[in-house]
Amino acid sequence: MDVTLLYFEDCPNWLAANNHLDELLAEHPDMSITRHIVDTPEEAERTRFRGSPSILVDGVDPFADPDDPVGLSCRVYQTPDGPAGSPTLDQLRDALARF
User: Fold this and answer.
1) pLDDT of residue 17
2) pLDDT for position 66
3) What distance in Å separates the CA atoms of residue 7 and residue 35, rounded to the nearest whole number?
4) Which residues, given as ranges, of the chain have pLDDT below 50?
5) CA–CA separation, 21 vs 52, rounded Å?
6) What stretch of H or E contains 99?
7) Three-state SS sequence of 58-78
8) What does residue 84 show for φ and ψ, rounded to 5 degrees?
9) Beta-bridge partners for 36
10) Domain of 50, in residue numbers
11) When you count CB atoms within 10 A of the terminal residue's CB, does the N or C end of the chain come out lower?
12) pTM score, whole prediction
């Protein structure tokens, strides 16, 4: 399973997502993680970047809605505890299980 973490450095929330992915690596030894900086509007458009952090599993963003805007912004995720800058560890675990 290929997981890509898309982010831009000025958004601090990518670090939480990165830590969750590192933690899940132990549960998914077949998973590879690529970290990709998105730093231009053109790159955001090319990668269909929905905000930082975005996580792609085998090229699919399991948290994206087709109407979500593309662009350089911090992303907000709906979690059981309310809006947050990163999906929870359990949300990521569930997303990976679908692939």
Assistant:
1) 97
2) 83
3) 8
4) none
5) 15
6) none
7) CCECCCCCCCCCCCCCECCEE
8) -150, 165
9) 6
10) 2-97
11) N
12) 0.93
CA distance 32 to 55: 12
Structure tokens at 22: 């590192």
Query: 50: how many CB neighbours lie within 10 A of its CB?
Result: 20
Backbone region of residue 33 per phi and psi (left: phi > 0; alpha: psi in -120 to 50; beta: other values) = beta
Predicted pLDDT of residue 1: 94
Please count the other Cβ atoms lying within 10 Å of the Cβ belonging to residue 87.
22
Q: What is the DSSP string of 15-60?
A: HHHHHHHHHHHTT-TT-EEEEEE--SHHHHHHHT--SBSEEEETTB
CATH number at residue 75: 3.40.30
Give the C-alpha separation, 23 to 26, whole Å.
6
C-beta of residue 9 within 8 angstroms of C-beta of residue 37? yes
d(CA 72, CA 26): 31
The count of domains in the chain is 1
